[in-house]
Amino acid sequence: MTTALVITLVGMGLVFGAILLFWLFMSVLVSYAGRRRESPGTAETELKESTAGDEEGVRQRAALAAVAVALALADEAGPKPFPLPPTALVSTWQAVMRSKQLGERGQVR
How far, in whole angstroms, is CA 10 from its chain's centroid? Predict the structure, then answer.
């Protein structure tokens, strides 16, 4: 009984040790990924500068969005294909094999 208890405790210790090791690894990864961010404000200022004098690009994007919406609505309004009938519950192969088995058994009373 003592040996079983020792084996159980060692196994549980290994499992919880592995869980703690994974937890430590994930926390190190999260803290490392958090430090690698760009300096604040850099991306925002680049975005403002690129969109300030780019009114033609904004118009093109708006036209592209309008075309995409029109295509999506036209696709919805079109005729729907006839739905396929539901599939059989038993495939042809299964039906043949079952009938073969019933034929081998003979008549059941």
Answer: 37
Distance CA 101, CA 108 (A): 12
Q: How far is CA 102 from the centre of its chain?
A: 44
Specify the amino acid at residue 45: T
Q: How many domains does the chain have?
A: 1
Structure tokens at 49: 């500068």
Helix H or strand E encompassing 11: helix 2-35
Whether 8 is covered by a domain: the verdict is yes
Check pLDDT > 60 for residue 38. no
Instruction: Say which residues have a Cβ less than 8 Å from residue 48's Cβ, sequence separation at least 6.
Output: none
pTM of the model: 0.33
Q: Are 58 and 51 in contact (CB under 8 A)?
A: yes
What is the Rg, in whole angstroms, of the alpha carbon atoms belonging to the chain? 34
